[in-house]
Design a protein that fits this description.
Distance between the termini: 37 Å
Helix content: over 70%
Number of strands: 0
Radius of gyration: 25 Å
Structural class: mainly alpha
Strand content: under 5%
Number of helices: 5
Order of helices and strands: HHHHH
């Protein structure tokens, strides 16, 4: 973790400054600043558009009673990409653009979700070795089927459901 912080707060800004200075030497100060400003404005527009599309997909998944795992990761990627696009610098803009544009975001989404599945599978296998017992009649990684039953009293009135917390 300390190495990651070192990279994020020291190495990345130095690289960004180096690239900005190199571009400034190549095309001049004013064109460099204009490009950085235009990329930030275009990035804000793109993030807004993709963020709305991601939100629509998220609500659509909920309406279909489907777990919106892909949509949640898409939203996080758009958020991180938007932050990088609004940060001045050519390297952060390039990475931010890759995270916001749908084709490359789809690749990043698959990578993030497969990594998360691997982490959860690893922690699940460690829990099993640590003494967590599987449910009766099944394995620990197997889903459990449940059924909700409405119960009526003898006088025909329904009993209040207490399964909601």
């Amino acid at each position: 973790m300390p190495a990651l912080l070192l990279i994020a707060f020291i190495v990345v800004p130095i690289v960004e400054l180096f690239v900005i200075v190199q571009v400034g030497d190549l095309i001049g100060l004013l064109p460099t600043l204009v490009i950085l400003l235009l990329v930030s404005v275009a990035g804000a527009w793109l993030v807004r558009r993709e963020g709305r599309a991601t939100w629509r997909n998220f609500t659509g998944a909920l309406q279909q009673a489907r777990i919106p795992a892909k949509e949640v990761v898409d939203g996080a990627l758009v958020l991180v990409g938007g932050t990088l696009l609004l940060t001045p610098g050519f390297v952060s803009d390039a990475v931010g653009l890759l995270l916001v544009v749908p084709p490359t975001r789809a690749v990043a989404n698959r990578l993030v979700r497969s990594r998360a599945r691997g982490l959860f599978a690893l922690s699940s296998s460690r829990a099993r070795r640590g003494g967590v017992r599987p449910p009766p009649g099944g394995r620990a990684d197997e889903p459990i089927d449940v059924q909700v039953v409405d119960v009526q009293r003898n006088d025909g009135q329904r009993m209040p459901r207490r399964d909601r917390t």
